[in-house]
Design goal:
431 residues; 2 domains; 10% helix; 4 helices; Rossmann fold; Neuraminidase; 30 strands; mainly beta; 4-stranded antiparallel beta sheet; 6-stranded mixed beta sheet
Length: 431
Amino acid sequence: MRLKTLMFALICAVAPLAMTQPAQAQVELTVTRGDVQPLPIAVPAFSGGAVGGDIAQVIAANLQRSGLFRPLDPASFTERDLTAAVQPRFASWKDINASALVNGTVTVQGGQIRVDFRLWDVSQEKQLLGLQFTSSPENWRRVAHKISDAVYERLTGEKGYFDTRIVFVAESGARGKTIKRLAIMDQDGANPSYLTAGDSIVMTPRFSSNSQEITYMSLRPDSSSIYLFNLETARRESLGTFQGMVFAPRFSPDGGKVAFSVERGGNSDIYVMNLSSHASVRLTSDPSIDTSPSFSPDGTKIAFNSDRSGQPQLYVMGADGSASRRISNGGGRYTTPVWSPTGEFIAFTKQTGGEFHIGVMRPDGSDERLLTSSYLDEGPTWAPNGRVLMFSRETPGGPPKLWSVDVTGRILQPMPYPGAGSDPAWSPLLN
């Protein structure tokens, strides 16, 4: 699968001072509060043809799924045919209680589309943001995602996460005869495609920091392997042959190493491989199960889970295997730790009281919070801004589905992908 090349020209427009004075905007959101009310925002169809309406719909859907915005019904709009070149009639938008307005214009230039858009503070009647994107016509959805990211960042102060992709395990077929294929899609469920044919069981796909390479585990009746898959070239490379079963691979933050587990005789330990030399170093040597390694964002530490205390708990050690210490202290079984991109939290799966939970805690084990609770929730992955988590959820007798939750636990919702899916991994922001 070759990722289509996308060239974006990004320029400031009209009101650069508005971009450098965010404190004056009344429509800003404080997203660290758990009780934040969604901001009413109007996103009318961009002028310039049908694709303008499609772009506006994607932007509105992105903002709505974040839980921080409430896009208003287009049927309520009284001002029509807005363009990016003309200031809106603010009274028309105040009448429908819009706090913010996003409008734009699409033009075609030499086989490319150019999208100019504006973000307005309706109450203060001023522009907050004016940008321009240029792209090939087939990549209009990425333009919409980039606009969504720009609006999200300007109004919340945090980076957006809409121009990203999800790699996951797509499942099909009857129970007991399930076909598991590696799949990839946009974060909003659009453009799904398969990366593997389903001739082996694939598990735990993970993105590299450059978004163009993934690592995953492939399981066959007589062996297991860890592969690297280049999304630009579709080239697949094995990390080599190991004595025992290998699983749970994950890249280091710089993409130069992969940490994974090797199981032999009921015991598993964590290894790290240098991808340039293919030399491996064993980091743990306990008579227990050590697995699910996850690097800290600075690459100096690794979170993992181990049953060395009698049941699975979370631990943190140096990236060289030194100074291991337990960080989980509550009752229950803790698995699948994943360090957030900001370093602020470690997400995990927890089993307790007959239910499964997705939770987060600080890297020192403090401030543990359970964000979800169901029959089976597992396998969290972080959005690149460290605010939203995706995971898989199963109901009794049902297939796994992809869900998301924010770090407050307030915004919990199914993802728009209609099929069965598990083991999601969120990419960094695309270039």
